[in-house]
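Internal tracking record. Fields below are filled automatically when a chain is submitted to the structure queue. Please do not edit lines marked as system-generated. If the sequence contains nonstandard residues, flag them in the REMARKS field before resubmitting.
Queue: standard
Priority: normal
Entity type: single polypeptide chain
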Amino acid sequence: MPGRIRVVIGKPGLDGHDRGAKVIARALRDAGVEVIYTGLHQTPAQIVSTALQEDADAIGLSILSGAHSTLFAEVMRLLHAEDAADIVVFGGGIIPPADIEALQALGVAALFTPGTPIGTITDWVRDNVPRPVAG
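SYSTEM-GENERATED OUTPUT FOLLOWS
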């Protein structure tokens, strides 16, 4: 029997607006996902470290600061350096359509922009993040 999906929700960088991250964290929790929220002003290294320590299946990043290209790239680089590229990375925030393809080329699995229904995000996580084998 598969276990529960574990997702780390991270708020990297200097952006202090975390309402969206908290809404998604609660929605995922209500959908049966185990959620670890890292809090505000985390570095990519802190978020990746938390994901590794918590044996996370996915990392969801919320970025409203405009630094999405840099922050997603660093998270992906750190995951590869830790041989943890199997951790699914997704995110949301103010991400211009022109940047989405470049982020997906880095390995970001999905990006959700403002106005995306919450159910779309929770369904995507359930459908695209492999469930761990219960041990």
